[in-house]
Specification:
Elements (H helix, E strand, L loop, with lengths): L8 H15 L3 E8 L3 E5 L6 E5 L3 E8 L3 E7 L12 E5 L4 E9 L2 E7 L2 E5 L6 E3 L5 E8 L3 E8 L2 E4 L3 E5 L4 E9 L2 E6 L3 E5 L6 E3 L5 E8 L3 E8 L2 E4 L3 E5 L4 E9 L2 E7 L2 E5 L6 E3 L5 E8 L3 E8 L2 E4 L3 E5 L4 E9 L2 E6 L3 E5 L6 E3 L5 E8 L4 E7 L11 E5 L4 E8 L1 E2 L2 E4 L8 E3 L34 E2 L4 E2 L23 H6 L8 H10 L1 E7 L2 E7 L5 E5 L3 E3 L2 E3 L5 E8 L7 E6 L4 E4 L13 E2 L2
Parallel strand pairs: 1-7, 8-15, 16-23, 24-31, 32-38
Antiparallel strand pairs: 1-3, 2-4, 4-6, 5-7, 8-10, 9-11, 11-14, 12-13, 12-15, 16-18, 17-19, 19-22, 20-21, 20-23, 24-26, 25-27, 27-30, 28-29, 28-31, 32-34, 33-35, 35-37, 36-38, 39-40, 40-41, 41-52, 42-43, 44-45, 45-46, 47-48, 49-50, 50-51
Amino acid sequence: MKRIFSVSFVSVVAFSLMLMGCGNKDGVNITVNNTASGSAFFANSTEKTREVSVGDTVTIVATPKENCEFAGWYVGKEKTPKSTEANYTFVASESISLVARFAKSPTVSICRIGNGDVVFTDSSESSKIVKSGTEVTAVATPDENCEFIGWYVDDNKVSDANEYSLKVTKSVTLAAKFIKSPVISVSNTECGAASIAGHAEKSVILLTGTDVTVVAAPDKDCEFEGWFAGNKMVCKELNYSFKASNNVALVAKFYPSPVVTVDVKGKGAASFADIAEKTKVVLLNTEATVVATPEKNHEFVAWYAGDAVVSKDAEYTFVVSEDVDLIAKFKPSPIVSISNSENGSVAFAASNGKTAIVLSGTEITVTATPDEGFELYGWFADGSKNPVSKDLAYTFAVDKNVKLYAEFRRTLNGYDYVDLGLPSGLKWAAYNVGAASPEECGGYYAWGETEEKKDYTWDTYKYFENSYNLVTKYCLHERNGVVDGKKVLEAGDDVANANWENIWRMPTWDEFDELCKKCTWEWTTMNEVAGYKVTGPNGNSIFLPAAGYRNEDDTHNAKSGGYYWTSSLIGSNCNGAYYLMFDNSERLKGDFARRYSGRNVRAVFKK
């Protein structure tokens, strides 16, 4: 059976009171200190240390020195004061050391910048010391013909009012700034008069922000040009209104009404729209319209004032602001002529013949029709080396005389080729992959790669594992790498096929061998580039430039030797591939060239 215990409430309370009574008998030490700008003691005492009992009420007193003020009671390095009351009363609960901190009372100074006077409302001094939180008022009074622009602390404006009150929390210097009131003056050139509205004088002093209007009155048969401040026109209106903000001297300029004349250069006529004369006197800011009329097969170019074009409209309307001599210039309309090479024809889309006269800016279309087996290589303008278009129908805007020449070539996918009449029927490209003409070197490619690069080494080669010094594709022997039995480049690794597409590809060694044995080779130069002219059985020829080869980041034997990749792998050592090598004395089958080497490629195809 459980036993129930009970404690009387009276017993508990009595025990608690006994404990509290014991605590009240404990003694604690209270210490007060002060900083240099004041003193601190216990109330009604000169003591700085006192032992009291817990629960006793203690009052300590802080007294600042002259021109100083109490900041607060602090404990140790705490940043927040225990109290900001100079007479601080608290109940003692523990030993504590309190420090009374003081600060210098802030100083308020006033000064002036410019012409005026400044005073405090309650003092004639220019500087005084006040307690923090005290409100002070300063008054600024400008001198005659001057004005107050504001009170400033440092460079910051704090008030626009002449009488400024602020609550002082720190030392501060107030500067009252004054400026001279602006002077407005007017004058005029000949042919008119100038005045200030509401004033008989031509020069007046006004407060900043005052509205002012100046009035210009031209003489008879004269025109007002405008109000000028220095060399700058500020207004074209006779009455110019503005707010006075600084000194300004305005000049009203006048001149006689302007004269407009028209003339022509070239085959055409020029006149005013409303009169037949070549000269007309008009009022300033009045619109005038002139008209230019070209003769047959000629066109209007532009209206000129001196060497400057002022309008390209034959009917030109403008506002007259000064004397002006206008010249209407004309020119013959541009002539477009077309011609073509063999193996095709050309024509205008909208007219017959090989010549057309059209207005400048007119769009015209010329068409090229290649013969069977040929393609348009391009339209060439005025003997240009690069085509202006490769479109069969070429549309352009005519702005000058132009001679267009359409050149037709045997091409595939836009790349020129030559039929050398070889027994195999193989067609050879007219220039190297990466080139645009037969004498250009074109690109340098590692065997099996389709882009050029800066550095040609095993480290940068696409199909090489540097850790094991083994090739990773096109390998016939385990000693060279991973055996895949591939002896000829696949289309994706063939730079000719990858870049020129369709049936273009790199030649095999057998196809280079045919080129060597069935053609005539002549060491020569083309546009100062050395190489071989290779002429086929049918008399057609290609040019192979001696472009050298690249190892690491250097080019070797440029201008003296040619090095052209085949698509054939060397079976005995899969680190290399066959290539054609030549100089000015011989042509050799390269039986070994490291695949990472950069060499040229001449593409072939056979339909």
